[in-house]
């Protein structure tokens, strides 16, 4: 009887996870397995490595390289700007009247992507955007003459920063709040300057969190498909757009090559997420 009660209690503890497990299995694990299997299939259903070998072409390699560059630069800038904002908010004595709205906005903006984000940037700083036209008519400043083009690599990087910076703020703020006052007081007693404290104490402790978050931001940008397609269309050769072109059903498309492209993206984002998890666990040991 006691054993049955223990089994029932154990089952009840897992009931709450059933919707999450079902959702993950249907919309994450099953599609991933379908992509991986499709990457090694011919259109007739046979097994082949040709789809993987076909990735070694100049167009596809260039698309991967541009995607990696965009993801890395947006992650790097997102980390630098987001860390500065989070440090100013956490350690700079900013009141909760500013901190609370900023954290709320960060939570919303970190999930704001896709067509709405692309439209917002096109309407604001696009070729005929509000700010673009205002600068041209009121001040005679033609951003295009200075080399600015929203539908370019740097335009995509700046667009990605809209959700990269808030995500950095959300993740790094708990790590900054975990810095103990005793560490700063001990550094002051030993005669360390503010710069020495950050260089020798704070940054070494925060470095795993910063590096891990940068890996997460990289994966976040590398897998952003809807924003890139809605913003640049086919004008920019990056992996998500090339993937979309292969699987959308055109007669020139090759769905199995698209699966191989997606398989390569899964490997890259999986490696980035693994780095994030490992570094996060290491950072948590320091901040306990």
UniProtKB/TrEMBL annotation:
PROSITE patterns: ABC_TM1
CDD domains xrefs: TM_PBP2 (cd06261)
InterPro entries: MetI-like (IPR000515), MetI-like_sf (IPR035906)
Coiled-coil features, chain-numbered ranges: none
A single GO BP: transmembrane transport
Any one GO cellular component localisation term in the record: plasma membrane
Source species, domain of life: Bacteria
Keyword set includes ATP-binding: no
Keywords: Cell membrane, Membrane, Transmembrane, Transmembrane helix, Transport
Any Pfam family: BPD_transp_1
Main location: membrane
Transmembrane segments: 14-40, 60-91, 112-134, 154-176, 197-218, 224-245, 257-279
Domain ABC transmembrane type-1 stretches: 64-278
Listed name of the protein: Putative spermidine/putrescine transport system permease protein
Lineage of producing organism: Bacteria, Pseudomonadati, Pseudomonadota, Alphaproteobacteria, Rhodobacterales
């Amino acid at each position: 009887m006691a054993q049955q009660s223990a089994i029932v209690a154990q089952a009840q503890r897992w009931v709450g996870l059933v919707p999450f497990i079902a959702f993950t299995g249907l919309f994450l694990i099953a599609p991933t397995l379908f992509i991986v299997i499709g990457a090694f299939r011919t259109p007739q259903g046979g097994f082949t490595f040709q789809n993987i070998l076909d990735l070694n072409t100049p167009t596809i390699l260039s698309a991967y390289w541009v995607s990696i560059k965009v993801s890395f630069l947006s992650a790097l800038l997102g980390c630098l700007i987001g860390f500065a904002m989070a440090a100013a908010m956490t350690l700079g004595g900013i009141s909760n009247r500013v901190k609370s709205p900023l954290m709320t906005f960060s939570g919303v903006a970190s999930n704001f992507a896709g067509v709405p984000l692309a439209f917002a940037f096109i309407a604001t700083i696009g070729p005929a955007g509000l700010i673009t036209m205002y600068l041209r008519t009121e001040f005679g400043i033609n951003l295009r003459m200075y080399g600015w083009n929203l539908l370019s690599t740097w335009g995509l990087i700046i667009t990605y920063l809209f959700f990269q910076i808030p995500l950095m703020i959300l993740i790094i703020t708990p790590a900054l709040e975990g810095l103990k006052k005793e560490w700063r007081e001990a550094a002051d007693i030993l005669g360390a300057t503010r710069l020495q404290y950050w260089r020798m104490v704070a940054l070494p402790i925060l470095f795993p969190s910063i590096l891990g978050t940068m890996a997460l931001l990289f994966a976040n940008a590398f897998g952003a498909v809807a924003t890139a397609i809605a913003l640049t269309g086919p004008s920019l050769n990056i992996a998500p757009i090339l993937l979309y072109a292969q699987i959308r059903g055109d007669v020139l498309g090759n769905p199995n090559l698209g699966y191989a492209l997606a398989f390569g993206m899964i490997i890259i984002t999986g490696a980035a997420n693994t780095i994030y998890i490992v570094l996060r666990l290491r950072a948590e040991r320091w901040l306990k």
